[in-house]
Specification:
The complex is a heterodimer. Chain A is an alpha/beta fold. In chain A, a hairpin with a 2-residue loop joins strand 9 and strand 10. In chain A, 31% of the residues lie in helices and 26% in strands. Chain B is 82% helix and 0% strand. The chains are: A alpha/beta, B mainly alpha. The interface between A and B is large, with 43 and 35 residues.
């Protein structure tokens, strides 16, 4: 399994954002993660990304206990959330160069990646001058610097113009073609559903039903 | 898809240099904030001179102490600012999720803070000497050494505590509350050593104070290296 959670609970102060959540995501699958505001979608993505250590329970990634193997698992994960992880004083190019340098990878592709996400003409502009949608595009570019084995997208269509939303769809399809495992948390179910083959619904931090096959995956199961 | 690259953890020093270069670039871009810190430190020196009054002997005798108090108070602004940019957009989380050691993060940020405070000290020292009528009886090289060691002593625990304070609501109050008590022994060493550089060292005590200050540096940096990963992960 690419992701396995065993009885994971996450508490913020007195509030439990995730409650005894158990889950196994097979490799190369794309999971549509839905739930109302405050259901725990972002928390679940941050737990899977190892940004949060679960209050209780165990997380395994790629068959390894995640928090005992952070240096091994983190390079294999890409996370795009509404908190952009960007330095506003730096330009788009400089933000990506920093990430490339700290990942020990070449920065040669950065120009092409920025063109790919539509930020080529603004490569040298400070991120603080970017709109929310442009920052979201830059976050996607950050993931594309290296293609991770597991990509976690939190509201990837949010804040983007129609052109940007099509770009996200294309990128997700390309990632799937590269056999990347994906978890896409979104309220835009109609747009994300054709891109995914499993569905997980959260309600107040709980999973009420196991992962449901959707689309072509449902036919695989029923055949 | 363009941009297919295999990630490989960079070495500790390569990652440290990456973080250091990023911090310098951000400081350069935010020069207005650096300028504000410099003016705050200069104003502190002036305020001390007004508070003590016209007694030139008292001012000259305590010049080293006033200099270090100005650096210490300004360091709270500089250290807080250093982690404000990390808290903005949760950039520190982005760094944490990269395949680099937390020790590289600590070294990069603490070295950047040390250099910044050292540069501030270089600017303030001649102002303090002129303003308080102190004379430089000792070696300027010794003075530079004491300044570097003192700034390193502030930066290491300052970086750890600024990372803790950045996660708290009352971050501006919390940082000095945590930092100042820990720094008192090193601060005493830095003030004594600076006084000996300014007033002369007929009894040959300067070396002992420098060794004491260096010992605190080793201790603070070792503790910072050991704790920083835990501080940013929890």
């Amino acid at each position: 399994m690419t992701v396995r959670l065993d009885n994971v609970s996450q508490r913020y102060g007195r509030r439990w954002a995730l409650v005894r959540l158990s889950l196994a995501i097979p490799p190369e699958r794309a999971v549509l993660l839905t739930g109302a505001n405050g259901a725990g979608k972002t928390t679940l993505l941050r737990v899977i990304a190892t940004a949060l250590r679960p209050t209780r329970g165990a997380l395994s990634l790629f068959g390894l206990p995640a928090h005992e193997n952070l240096e091994a698992v983190r390079p294999r994960i890409g996370l795009v959330t509404h908190r952009s992880h960007l330095y506003e004083e730096l330009s788009a190019q400089e933000n990506l160069t920093l990430v490339a340098r700290l990942q020990g990878i070449s920065a040669r592709e950065i120009g092409a990646i920025l063109e790919r996400v539509g930020l080529g003409p603004r490569a040298h502009s400070a991120v603080r001058t970017f709109s929310a949608g442009m920052q979201r595009r830059l976050c996607l570019a950050r993931v594309l610097l290296r293609v991770p084995e597991l990509v976690l997208l939190d509201e990837p269509f949010g804040q983007l113009d129609p052109e940007g939303q099509v770009l996200v769809e294309e990128l997700v399809r390309e990632l799937r073609a590269r056999r990347t495992t994906l978890v896409i948390a979104t309220h835009d179910v109609d747009r994300a559903r054709p891109l995914c083959d499993l569905h997980l619904h959260l309600e107040q931090g709980r999973v009420l039903r196991p992962l449901e096959p959707i689309g072509a995956a449902r036919h695989e199961v029923t055949a | 898809m363009s941009g297919v690259a295999q990630a490989a953890s960079p070495s500790l020093w390569r990652a440290t240099l990456g973080v250091l270069a990023k911090d310098f670039l951000i400081e350069w871009r935010g020069r207005a904030r650096v300028n504000a810190t410099v003016f705050f430190a200069m104003m502190t020196l002036f305020v001390f001179s007004f508070a003590v009054g016209p007694d030139g002997n008292v001012l000259a005798r305590n010049a080293g102490g006033y200099l270090w108090l100005a650096i210490l108070l300004a360091s709270v602004l500089a250290l807080g600012e250093s982690f404000r940019v990390e808290a903005e957009n949760n950039a520190l989380e982005g760094l944490r999720l990269l395949p680099i050691s937390p020790r590289a993060l600590f070294l990069g940020k603490a070295l950047a803070n040390t250099v910044l405070l050292f540069a501030l000290g270089l600017l303030l020292a001649p102002i303090a000497v002129g303003l308080y009528g102190a004379a430089l009886a000792g070696s300027a090289w010794h003075g530079l050494g004491v300044l570097a060691l003192g700034c390193a002593a502030i930066s290491a625990p300052g970086t750890v505590y600024a990372a803790i304070a950045a996660q708290a609501r009352a971050r501006d109050v919390l940082l000095p509350l945590l930092l100042f008590p820990v720094l008192i022994p090193a601060l005493v060493g830095a003030v004594k050593a600076t006084a000996l550089v300014l007033e002369g060292d007929p009894m040959g005590q300067l070396g002992s104070w420098i060794v004491l200050l260096a010992a605190f540096d080793v201790m603070y940096w070792a503790i910072g290296l050991a704790l920083f990963g835990r501080v940013i992960e929890e």
